[in-house]
Structure formats: structure tokens, C-alpha cells
Write a structure and sequence with these properties.
Elements (H helix, E strand, L loop, with lengths): L1 E5 L4 H12 L3 E6 L14 E4 L5 H10 L4 E4 L6 H6 L1 H22 L3 E5 L24 H20 L2 E6 L2 E3 L14 H10 L5 E3 L11 E2 L1 E3 H17 L6 E3 L6 E2 H12 L6 E3 L8 E2 L4 H7 L7 H17 L1
Parallel strand pairs: 1-2, 1-4, 2-3, 4-5, 5-6, 6-11, 7-10, 8-13, 9-14
Antiparallel strand pairs: 9-12
Helix pairs in contact: 1-7, 2-4, 4-5, 6-10, 8-10
Length: 322
């Protein structure tokens, strides 16, 4: 069995590819390198530089490598920026998914694991969201991910597509010293860049209705997330029944201020973060239950917050030194 990983040269996708290979599965990567890095792709892995908006390239790749399933990680993933760039977000995340599904249908590939997002829930007063929590995304990014789930659902009705979607929020840490988060918008890279450059990290808003006034999120180690994608792929491959969506949540979450405290503790660099304005489209709190994923996918949080920070910092400092 061969799995096509869209976005497989990105931070998350590269971890998924290596987890697939460690599990004895074959991976093929399609990535346009708009935010991914060719060097993140493990040596010997088939790589095609292409956008998922190019349906013919997808068809050619699927046929050439005899792909039997897809893990769809590619997409524009920045909730705050999506508010300023809604059309770009929809083109990448909605049209890109439609084109991918069309290529899969054309080539007879009937299995897909979709990297969705907890952003589909938007703001909620619930202490813990479940898969049945009403969906009310607050950004074009969250909306685009929800539409992606709808596309899979409708294609299942039309063609019998086997699928599941994994909803998660902040992905951090590193499983390999040569793969790290390079996003210019994510919290960990922003904090680390500031520390490396001698600047003071900042918090976007401290007036949210949370215990310490800063956003509360699920923070997941990227290696744990990758294992969940592989478990979902293996389940689809074996024909086991899966829910249409799973939350990959911690059940407790952590605030941005708690993250800052952990960074200072792990790196040994003392600092007091500056307070900046809120980012548009950022919900106050999203913490999800991972109960269903634990039941069906063996999902669990295998890393503490300090371990997440430590692995991310080690990879970041290794990159600086190289």
C-alpha cells in the first residue's frame, strides 16, 4: 500500500511521512514548497513538486506511484492571516481539496485521512468540545476546513469514499532535529526567533475571558499527531469502521502565558513577555476531548508541555547552529 501525503515537505507533513515509513508503509510526497522545505523530506522518499490545484499532476502522480490512499495535510493554515486573505485561503483549502478528490475519483483511490482543525468549532462557552459540538468557525481558515469535511462527506455519499478527519489546534515540538516549525505566524517559532535575536517575545492579547487573560489551546506534540494520522490510515486500509471526525485533544489545554513560562523554564532565558493587540479570528479557548480518538486510534498525549518545548527548542537551536 502506498500513501500520498499532500504537504509532505511541511513541518507536520514531514513528520507524518516519517511515521508512515517507520510503520512499514510507503509514502509519496506532493508539495509546492510554498511553506514546506525539500530538505524536510526523508532521503529516498518519492517527491513531486506540484500544487494540489494541478489536477493532472495529481492524477499522473497517483498513477505513476500506484497510490492507494491519501493523507491530505496541504493547505493554508494561518487563521489570523486568513481574515485578510480569505480568497487565497478558500482557493488553497477548498478548491485544492476539491481538485484532490476529483483526482482520487478519476484514479479509483477511495481512502483519505484529512488534516482538519479545531478551528471548525470557533468560540464556545464549553469547557470541553466534543466531535458533536456545534460548528461556528470565526475565520475563513476554520470555515475552509469545515467545508473540506463537507466535501469528504458528500463524496462518500456519491462514491463510497472511505474517510476520516482529524481536528486539532496548536502543533508544537519536534520528533527529529532536522524538522522544525518554520511558520512566521505560529507561537513557538515567534517566541524562539525573538529569543535567538535578543528580542522580547509578545502575547497577542491578555484580556480574553480565561483564567490568566490569554488564549487557551490544546498543544500537541507533532510526533503524537503524526502517529494519529498513521493509525487512521491503517484503519482505513484494513477496512475498519471509523468516525467521520476525531478530536485530537488534551482535555485540559494550556494558556499562552503558561507556554511562555515553560519556554523560560526550559531554555533558561528569563523574560517577561510584552502584551500586543489581539489577532483577528482568534477564539479565546478551544480545548477538545480526545476520548473517541483514544478508543479508535490509540490517541494519547505522550509528551509533557516541557518536553514539547524542549524538543522544539533543540531542533530550532540545531537549525541556527547549522
Amino acid at each position: 500500500m502506498t500513501w500520498l501525503v499532500t504537504g509532505g515537505a511541511g513541518y507536520i507533513g514531514a513528520h507524518v511521512v516519517r511515521a508512515l515509513q517507520k510503520a512499514g508503509l510507503t509514502a509519496v510526497v506532493v508539495d509546492d514548497l510554498s511553506s514546506g522545505h525539500r530538505e524536510f523530506v526523508a532521503p529516498g522518499t518519492a517527491f513531486v513538486e506540484a500544487t494540489i490545484l494541478d489536477g493532472q499532476r495529481l492524477i499522473d502522480t497517483i498513477q505513476r506511484y500506484r497510490v492507494t490512499g491519501v493523507i491530505h495535510v496541504a493547505g493554508f493554515k494561518y487563521a489570523g492571516v486568513s481574515v485578510q486573505r480569505p480568497l487565497h485561503t478558500y482557493a488553497q483549502n477548498v478548491e485544492g481539496t476539491r481538485v484532490l478528490l476529483a483526482a482520487m475519483h478519476e484514479t479509483g483511490v477511495g481512502r483519505i485521512v484529512f488534516s482538519s482543525s479545531a478551528a471548525v468549532y470557533g468560540n464556545t462557552d464549553l469547557d470541553l468540545v466534543t466531535e458533536d459540538t456545534p460548528k461556528s468557525p470565526t475565520s475563513p481558515y476554520g470555515e475552509s476546513k469545515l467545508i473540506g469535511e463537507w466535501l469528504l462527506r458528500d463524496q462518500e455519499v456519491a462514491t463510497g469514499l472511505a474517510h476520516t478527519s482529524l481536528r486539532y489546534f496548536n502543533v508544537v515540538g519536534s520528533g527529529y532535529p532536522d524538522v522544525y516549525d518554520t511558520s512566521p505566524h505560529n507561537l513557538f517559532p515567534l517566541v524562539f526567533d525573538a529569543l535567538v535575536e535578543g528580542r522580547t517575545p509578545h502575547i497577542n492579547g491578555d484580556d480574553y475571558p480565561t483564567p490568566d487573560g490569554t488564549n487557551v489551546r490544546d498543544y500537541l506534540h507533532v510526533a503524537d499527531l503524526a502517529l494519529a494520522h498513521v493509525a487512521a490510515a491503517q484503519a482505513l486500509e484494513a477496512g475498519r469502521p471509523l468516525e467521520r471526525a476525531y478530536n485530537l485533544g488534551s482535555g485540559s489545554g494550556a494558556s499562552v502565558r503558561q507556554i511562555m513560562d515553560a519556554v523560560a523554564r526550559v531554555t533558561g532565558i528569563a523574560f517577561t513577555p510584552e502584551i500586543a493587540p489581539r489577532r483577528a479570528g482568534d477564539p479565546a479557548r478551544i480545548v477538545a476531548s480526545g476520548e473517541l480518538a483514544a478508543r479508535d486510534l490509540g490517541w494519547e498525549m505522550r509528551h509533557s508541555l516541557d518536553e514539547m518545548v524542549a524538543s522544539a527548542w533543540a531542533a530550532r537551536t540545531a537549525a541556527v547552529e547549522s
